[in-house]
Task: inverse folding
């Protein structure tokens, strides 16, 4: 392995240019090539990077660009095909979220990466966000007490996707954060959704996750809301935390608020504690820069990524259960292949 790996990015649509910009800025790697089947998209992005090779043919990009690693930012239905070809060609591979379209595809990609001895990383971007890392630190410190529940909302008007429903598009962000904070995969999922568009794809959904030991989380995802919302409440039995990703100045607030339960079953009065609110300092570093740096580190050291293929599979298990539940009017679905977390993969 050369000490500055050559990186190629496939997909120059909405998200790919963010990855291209970050890999291009990293001094630990060389952005060698970009690829898109759409010549117009490729030309408009490559205009900013005249030193980078361009390809419309993925096979030529894999064979001719002398790449060590491939970063995949194309629609989800193409993830498996492009990632399996990249791994078979001996390239370390980064796939955007969600990892693939099915549990089976994720398992095959994990097997392939293992057989080939290559790094396989999934773009669960929020786990590289200084905000989410600060929240994790606060939760792990015990300041909030025992986490009673988490509720998360990711709403906007659009962007409608053609190949995946709203849960597969938006909920991977909320789910990756919730699993990170709970340090556990849920055991069961209920989800109700509604289809309002002609495309017959669920565009509004409400998901509930049940964890062992009574832990509970709720995720509301929508492409059909008048107001853009990206927020999360983490409710502990001592304090409560609110994370508003759209607040430019104070994304995290900790409230010294709780319900005080009666001491014995004979006492029925519930009282409410109201105390101060405080906001921690959050480093302004860009999550994508941290994520890209981590991928390069893993390539150079052989370390398993913090968001490895096992995490991608875990998330796709939950998304699959949510889709099955929506098709069955919110039926309770046990998570297939429930993967116990061992604290080694997550929480670093
Ligand atoms: N991590 C995040 O926060 C985040 C945010 C948005 C999107 N994403 C993910 O990024 C991926 C891409 O999403 P998007 O919104 O940019 O999609 P997009 O449709 O805007 O862009 C995809 C691009 O891939 C190209 N493409 C499709 N098939 C190709 C192929 N076989 N070879 C080469 N190019 C091909 C298309 O021409 C298009 O330019 C998805 O997996 C999505 O879930 C992640």
Result:
């Amino acid at each position: 392995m050369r000490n500055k790996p050559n990186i190629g990015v496939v997909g120059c649509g909405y998200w790919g240019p963010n990855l291209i910009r970050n890999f291009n800025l990293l001094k630990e790697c060389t952005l060698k090539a970009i690829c898109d089947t759409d010549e117009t998209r490729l030309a408009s992005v490559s205009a900013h990077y005249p030193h980078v090779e361009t390809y419309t043919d993925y096979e030529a990009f894999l064979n001719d660009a002398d790449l060590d690693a491939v970063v995949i930012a194309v629609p989800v239905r193409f993830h498996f095909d492009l990632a399996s070809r990249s791994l078979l060609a001996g390239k370390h591979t980064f796939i955007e979220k969600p990892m693939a379209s099915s549990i089976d595809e994720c398992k095959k990609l994990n097997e392939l990466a293992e057989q080939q001895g290559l790094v396989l990383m999934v773009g669960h971007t929020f786990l590289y966000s200084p905000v989410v890392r600060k929240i994790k630190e606060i939760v792990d410190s015990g300041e909030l007490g025992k986490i009673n529940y988490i509720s998360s909302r990711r709403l906007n008007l659009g962007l409608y996707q053609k190949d995946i429903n709203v849960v597969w598009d938006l909920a991977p962000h909320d789910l990756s954060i919730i699993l990170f904070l709970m340090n556990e995969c849920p055991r069961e999922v209920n989800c109700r959704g509604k289809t309002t568009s002609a495309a017959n794809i669920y565009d509004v959904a409400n998901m509930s996750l049940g964890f062992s030991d009574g832990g509970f989380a709720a995720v509301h995802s929508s492409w059909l809301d008048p107001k853009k919302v990206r927020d999360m409440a983490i409710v502990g039995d001592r304090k409560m935390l609110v994370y508003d990703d759209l607040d430019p100045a104070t994304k995290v607030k900790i409230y010294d608020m709780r319900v005080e339960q009666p001491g014995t079953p004979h006492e029925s009065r519930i009282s409410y504690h109201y105390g101060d609110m405080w906001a921690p300092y959050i480093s302004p570093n860009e999550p994508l820069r941290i994520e890209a740096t981590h991928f390069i580190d893993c390539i150079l050291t052989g370390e398993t990524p913090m968001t490895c293929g096992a995490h991608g599979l875990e998330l796709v298990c939950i998304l699959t259960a949510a889709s099955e539940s929506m098709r069955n009017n919110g039926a309770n679905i046990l998570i297939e292949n429930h993967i116990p977390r061992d604290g080694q993969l997550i929480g670093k």
